Amino acid sequence: MTSRLFFEQIPGLTDYRIAHAHQLTLREAVARGDAPDTVLVLEHAPVITLGRKADPSHVVAAPERLAELSIDRLAVDRGGDVTYHGPGQMVAYPILNLNHWKPSVGWYLRSLEQVVIDLVGDYGLAGERLEGFTGVWVDGAKVAAIGVGVHQWVTYHGLALNVAPDMRHWACIIPCGIADKPVTSLRGLLGSAPPMAEVMDRFERHFRRVFA
Hints:
By secondary structure, this protein is an alpha+beta fold. It has a single domain (2-210), classed as BirA Bifunctional Protein, domain 2 (2-Layer Sandwich), CATH 3.30.930. It has helices at residues 16-32, 63-68, 105-121, 186-190, 196-210; strands spanning 6-14, 38-44, 47-50, 72-75, 82-85, 89-95, 136-138, 141-151, 154-162. Helix 1 (16-32) links the parallel strand 1 (6-14) and strand 2 (38-44). Helix 3 packs across helix 5 (196-210). The longest helix is centred in the N-terminal third of the chain and has 17 residues, at 16-32. It is globular and about 45 Å long. The protein starts with 5 loop residues before the first strand and ends with a helix. The model has no long low-confidence stretch (mean pLDDT 93).
């Protein structure tokens, strides 16, 4: 199926609402067969998002503090709890008709995790899964969060890999509702961050291979 995959890298910082509207338009087009399976890859302006079953108390910063940091706050229609997106974080939104691969949410989540595990492996890092959790971890710290939506087997939302974000922003939330496990980034693990363009290109390569 890799020949049917189209990757769209969006430059600059993308407002979350704009990206979400783009996803929904693509989701309907992919479902109709009017567009190829597409993966959006981008960076967001600072935003905290709350999934369908999120606990609002997991946003621990007061509204005044969020305003001071220019962090938006939105309720969204994905799985998962509370998470943060911002500059220095690679976000990928695959809009895929899983009937072209395997109509299984579990298979899809594990495949996304594998893409990130292979990507961080390029930098000598041992990415891993933790039983009972979704995402990718290195040395017990979360480096990539995953929260997806599936509508009639067409996926939207996706994953976020921390490359070199402002880690202080995570103090505003309990990430994914997990209070006892830290969040990390490639910069924190490697000492310096690889270029975002390089990470995006590696992500595309590993995504195409895993979803082959």
